[in-house]
TrEMBL record:
<comment type="similarity">
    <text>Belongs to the peroxin-19 family.</text>
</comment>
<protein>
    <recommendedName>
        <fullName>Peroxin-19</fullName>
    </recommendedName>
</protein>
<dbReference type="GO" id="GO:0005778">
    <property type="term" value="C:peroxisomal membrane"/>
</dbReference>
<dbReference type="Pfam" id="PF04614">
    <property type="entry name" value="Pex19"/>
</dbReference>
<dbReference type="InterPro" id="IPR006708">
    <property type="entry name" value="Pex19"/>
</dbReference>
<dbReference type="GO" id="GO:0033328">
    <property type="term" value="F:peroxisome membrane targeting sequence binding"/>
</dbReference>
<dbReference type="GO" id="GO:0045046">
    <property type="term" value="P:protein import into peroxisome membrane"/>
</dbReference>
<dbReference type="InterPro" id="IPR038322">
    <property type="entry name" value="Pex19_C_sf"/>
</dbReference>
Length: 149
């Protein structure tokens, strides 16, 4: 939602500012880099916090990088083996421990299991001939489910 996106953007900008300040302190001491040189490095990476010459923000340039990183982290190769194993073992765990779990924990764990299965189903539906649009749509669904989890 818009509030979460705005909070994420603010948090990300604050983190980048802190990284930039720390990098300037560390790198500046060793190599005597000026503030302009450090800003140029950040700009070349496409993640500067200042307004760019073309009028876009550094945050806008960072989004493709973050999206690519998230796609890699949420890829079938990385996520599917662990989630499918968990989804397979979760029902057994819940059945064996249902008496020792609080009603709230049982409800939360059951929901997590359902969400894991949903992600696994998305990965199972993946086909080698899927178009980029289909892959992007699937990634958005997986990202949404992972956020719910």
């Amino acid at each position: 939602n818009a509030t979460s996106d705005e909070e994420f953007q603010n948090s990300l900008q604050e983190t980048l500012k802190t990284i930039s300040e720390k990098a300037q302190t560390v790198v500046g001491q060793d190599n005597n880099l000026s503030e302009e040189e450090l800003a140029k490095i950040w700009s070349n990476l496409g993640i500067g916090g200042e307004e760019e010459a073309d009028g876009g923000s550094g945050f806008a340039n960072l989004m493709p990088l973050m999206t690519n990183m998230m796609q890699n982290l949420l890829s079938k190769e990385l996520l599917y083996p662990a989630l499918s194993e968990l989804a397979e073992k979760y029902p057994v765990y819940l059945n064996e421990n249902k008496d020792s779990l609080s009603a709230e924990d049982l409800k939360r764990y059951t929901k997590q299991m359902e969400l894991m299965k949903e992600v696994c189903n998305e990965f199972d539906a993946e086909l080698p001939e899927d178009t980029e649009a289909v892959k992007k749509e699937r990634f958005q669904r997986i990202l949404s489910v992972m956020q719910s989890m």
